[in-house]
Inverse folding.
């Protein structure tokens, strides 16, 4: 398969999972509007054609393409690759507005071109194993999901570049939270229909050390010594996104969920608690060797040992082995079609929840209703995007 990549920046490492000449796929073209992105691509994939012209890529007869641009350009590019008939991998989130996300889905539906969204956490061991426990009936019917996201690297990851600006991300509740909102939906078996939220720029807005970092990459400034948060340096000149957010969701199957995100904690991990009619599960750590604990027995003496512990598996490649599985599934889908663990409908649902939650927290925190997709689009994507 002849694969193209648009955008060779933060998620460019996926090229390693795609470029396997002699094993079924190779990156033959990279398109990036930045000189540095093109230089990086040329150094890493010497045999690929490097261009700044998207039209050149669209006309190259590719078998598939990965759209890895900054989030607010996903629709701008993906709509064109889909119209060109190229099976398209779009990095999560679909885009930073609901209108742009819906434009991608509508174009995929109208053209019949296969669309895949890069929600790699659906392949992460901690999430897969928690879902396996739920699907097996271990805790009964899911009634509540709580997620606490401790973003210990938030200052370095999100407040020194384009992520810090609403114009590029809408909010970090959407940009960073799209993963977790999708996981909440997947574990609970439903999508958000009503959402409310609160949030604040509580710490980083008061930091006066600012710098235009467009000449640098994260590796140039990242350090665990950048602590405490209020003493960070060289933050983005514009910071108008929240560094702490909390949202509550009512799902269409009646389950309730909450998501909390903080970018100035010292630790960096996600904690999911899922409560059902017969027990609950909770992960303690989210990497290989950490554990998922299961409680099925009633008690009244405070914390008690779980009835079962499940060790989180390991895997080769990024995100606990999720990235190789993600790309393998996309390439198979682009070539042959069929069912996938990821879902464009689910990807849109996470964007919708994040966008509406942002609107809520920036107003009075009231509940907002998520607009529904046209029934024909839902049916098409739920059927696995059958040939049209």
């Amino acid at each position: 398969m002849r694969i193209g990549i648009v955008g060779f920046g933060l998620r460019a490492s996926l090229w390693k999972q795609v470029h396997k000449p002699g094993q079924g796929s190779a990156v033959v073209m990279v398109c990036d509007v930045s000189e540095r992105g093109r230089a990086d691509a040329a150094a890493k994939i010497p045999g690929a054609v490097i261009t700044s012209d998207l039209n050149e890529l669209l006309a190259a007869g590719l078998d598939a393409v990965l759209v890895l641009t900054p989030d607010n350009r996903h629709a701008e590019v993906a709509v064109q690759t889909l119209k060109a008939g190229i099976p398209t991998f779009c990095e999560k989130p679909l885009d930073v507005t609901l209108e742009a996300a819906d434009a991608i889905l509508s174009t995929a539906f109208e053209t019949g071109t296969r669309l895949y969204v890069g929600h790699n956490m659906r392949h992460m061991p901690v999430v897969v194993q928690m879902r396996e426990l739920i699907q097996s009936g271990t805790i009964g019917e899911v009634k509540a999901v709580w997620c606490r996201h401790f973003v210990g690297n938030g200052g370095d990851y999100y407040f020194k570049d384009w992520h810090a600006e609403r114009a590029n991300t809408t909010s970090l509740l959407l940009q960073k939270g799209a993963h977790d909102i999708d996981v909440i939906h997947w574990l609970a078996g439903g999508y958000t229909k009503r959402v409310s939220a609160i949030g604040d720029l509580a710490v980083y807005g008061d930091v006066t050390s600012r710098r235009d970092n467009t000449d640098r990459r994260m590796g140039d400034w990242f350090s665990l010594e950048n602590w405490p948060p209020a003493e960070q340096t060289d933050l983005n000149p514009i910071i108008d996104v929240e560094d702490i957010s909390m949202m509550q969701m009512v799902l269409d199957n009646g389950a309730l969920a909450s998501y909390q995100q903080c970018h100035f904690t010292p630790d960096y991990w996600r904690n999911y608690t899922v409560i059902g009619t017969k027990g609950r599960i909770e992960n303690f750590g989210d990497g290989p060797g950490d554990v998922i604990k299961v409680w099925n027995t009633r008690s009244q003496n405070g914390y008690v040992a779980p009835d079962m512990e499940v060790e989180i598996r390991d895997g080769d490649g990024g995100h606990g082995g999720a990235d190789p599985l993600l790309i393998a599934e996309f390439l198979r889908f682009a070539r042959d079609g069929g069912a996938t663990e990821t879902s464009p409908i689910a990807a849109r649902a996470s964007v919708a929840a994040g966008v509406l939650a942002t609107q809520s927290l920036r107003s009075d925190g009231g509940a907002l209703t998520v607009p529904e997709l046209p029934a024909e689009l839902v049916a098409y994507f739920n059927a696995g995007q059958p040939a049209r």
